[in-house]
């Protein structure tokens, strides 16, 4: 006990010391702006002039000032913004017309009146060289005119949508200079900002009938009265027309001025169609009154009528929990925002993209809330996005759970895989806010794809930026609040706010406030939950009862030694709750409880736990840890209360089993589990026999190490495939049928790529495939006018096995992607080696391009006897060539008819069926597909290839190089495609003429039944 106290004491001293040191070191530059801007709403541009008074409060002499010119992010494809968007698969700006782009120019820099030189580092930032050094404590004046061409708002944040103007990140602006130096940065979608505080005086000139919302306080009383009158007008409106067109602009202009001290940015939004609402809210601590405004168009007016109420609520609760709002006004406007559903600026926010009023409330709360986490607490958003987006998301969640305690998340369409119907269908409509966010976190955490909360914004992949930076930080602070209790937690937050408002806090400053006010080290929180992606998983391992004192065995299966609560339940009613301070790997807790039927760790789901299935135990019964089975048709998200089994009716068809019906039993959904299965059992009405397929997979996901994922799979498949009807005489029918049983055991390794945004993926694997073919001959004796009897006359079985190994490298970038794959296949009779390279060259300014597949294969050894069992095939495979039964075919052993025209792109990949080209040496081929311009899914294709002794292989056809080509209808590349060949090399043409193969019979198609299996779809979504 005393040791514990001593430790706390020393922690406090250290924190105190570091606070004092930090406070001594701390400095902050000041940037005061006077800006004039004139809007040209026909040319979609701004003519501007600005003066910045830059004060150097550091101890350093400055020789240059780094400046941002962010409208240039839209100028051409060299900007970091475009590069990031292309990485994320968004090609809108990359392919944009010049007229839709934006830029800044006409700059003429002067420092203290003298012309100064500007040197670009990237297209949207650079340094202004000072003619004379700027000494500590001194100021200088930077002036320049500038012209902004406003880009289309569909690209990012700055923009216009017709004559609606969303003007942000629009003027030349110094980067922050702090104890770490300059923080110059390009403009990005993913990765926000860092700016110096200062005093703003901004004058905007524009046609008279525009309604404007802006940072700061409007200084023109006439305009203020006009706005107030507009608010009265809107209040009196009972309905809103559906009109969204723009009225003509007034020919007279107005010149309006806003001023504001102590903000670090200035944004403004102008729309002639805006309705205005005005309100007021009293802040909880200072009782100061804030005037609030909402501005919106007819489109979402019904929801926005409550806009002012939402702003007021947000200002009130954020003030209550964190400290009072410091400004006089707060505005939210409705508009187009392409980088998310809302965007924050000091004292003003823009919201768009919400799909109902509850989501508008949450969005307004979040964006207004940024006045704390970004606005007043101006952290470096680019380097530590959790400090603004994450801590703000926590407050958003707290706000929503406070105002709508009974509401569930399913009411709100924000979940990543959104949609009300989706939520209901898969039973996630009963999750509350924090549970939904934990699910989002677990989608990544279960597969170790989550990144730590602390990280640079440009290092996150798109999924992690949402699920980790926003959501996991939110639940992490919920966890901390649940541990500290509301009042201590609020005291910590308010300490942080009071110490750091109107400053630039760093991550250690958040930690210092929480540590000093709570008197706890909180290392588990700041080191493990924030700074790492260590997983949390507490488990109840055992329970014993003696006179209502329960001894509960606890095991920490996770990597975080954090605190947790354990609740004693009677039914689902909590009757006792005990806190464990953590620091325990395994141990026992004694809890007194009368009438408890169940104990559960974290019953209220405040902890970002990766596995809740081991959190509960019953106080009596045989299987105390097992949950009752719950059987569904559609997949359900994992539940703590039940063990889900999903049973779905299944049907199928092929030419031998004919129609098949049965069920699929599976437990394979999201979040991913280590052990998963899907088993489909079918009865074939054609062969009157059983068919089916299934897989069992065990996945090992590693947080560190070379292999991100190792998966061990056992797959089985059984179908009929060959059948002859032989009429012996009038009364007797003989049926010959085959069934194949295919078993595959595979192990696959995915190599970790430390760069989560990298499109490069490597994996390799090994598998053993065994097939057993059953041959059945049935004599079906039909006797007229009598009953039918069956007589099985012969059954033969034969089996084969092979081994495979592959290595695959993929570059999945959206432009010019490529991949290659090396594969060995063989057994004691044969060994084959092949390489397949796939690529696409995009056409200039197009999502379309030329796709290619280059294949080369050779035998390493071959004891194979005639008839050849394992040849290379020049043609893409059909069912007959698929000697290891890899794929699913409608007509595996058909020679003719439409079922024989299904193929899969293996080996030479020729679309023309060339049965003679069964190659026992080497073969190489190139398959090209070129997309045609226009919106139709039509491509031209060409296959060209050769193999050893191609010419003499069958002399009559006489081709050294073979080729064919034609038209392809490509609805889903390599999944659903139809190929119509038109031209052929001489030998192929001779063959087609000889065999009299009709035009319709030359058409072949791909239906990849494996890829179309809905159970495999989730792997497409969460890669
Ligand atoms: Zn945000």
Report what the structure shows.
It is a single chain. This protein has 1023 residues and is an alpha+beta fold. The protein has 18 helices and 50 strands. The strands form 9 sheets. It has a 17-stranded mixed β-sheet. Strands 1, 2, 4, 5, 6, 9, 15, 17 and 18 form a 9-stranded mixed β-sheet that branches. Residues 1-17, 410-419, 726-733 and 781-788 have low confidence and may be disordered. The structure holds zinc ion. Residues 366, 370, 389, 392 line the site of zinc ion.
Structure characteristics:
1023 residues, alpha+beta, 17-stranded mixed beta sheet, 20% helix, binds zinc ion
User: What helical percentage do the residues reach?
Assistant: 10-25%
Bound chemical compounds: zinc ion
Largest sheet features: 17 strands, mixed
The number of helical segments is 18
- Termini separation comes to 49 Å
Average pLDDT metric: 89
Shape: globular
What's the layout of helices and strands?
Blueprint: H1 2-25, E1 30-40, E2 45-55, E3 62-68, H2 80-87, E4 103-105, E5 110-111, E6 114-115, E7 117-122, E8 125-134, E9 139-149, E10 159-161, E11 164-167, E12 173-174, E13 176-178, E14 181-183, E15 198-207, E16 211-214, E17 217-218, H3 221-236, E18 253-263, E19 268-271, E20 275-282, E21 289-296, H4 301-304, H5 307-322, E22 329-334, E23 342-345, E24 348-351, H6 357-369, H7 371-376, H8 385-403, H9 420-425, H10 433-445, H11 462-484, H12 486-500, H13 507-518, H14 523-530, E25 538-546, E26 549-556, E27 564-570, E28 573-580, E29 586-592, E30 598-601, E31 616-618, E32 629-632, E33 643-654, E34 658-667, E35 675-684, E36 689-701, E37 707-727, E38 732-751, E39 760-782, E40 788-811, E41 818-826, E42 830-842, E43 849-862, E44 872-873, E45 918-919, E46 922-931, E47 938-947, H15 950-953, E48 962-972, E49 976-984, H16 986-995, H17 999-1002, E50 1004-1007, H18 1018-1021
Helix pairs in contact: 1-13, 5-6, 6-8, 8-11, 10-11, 11-12, 12-13
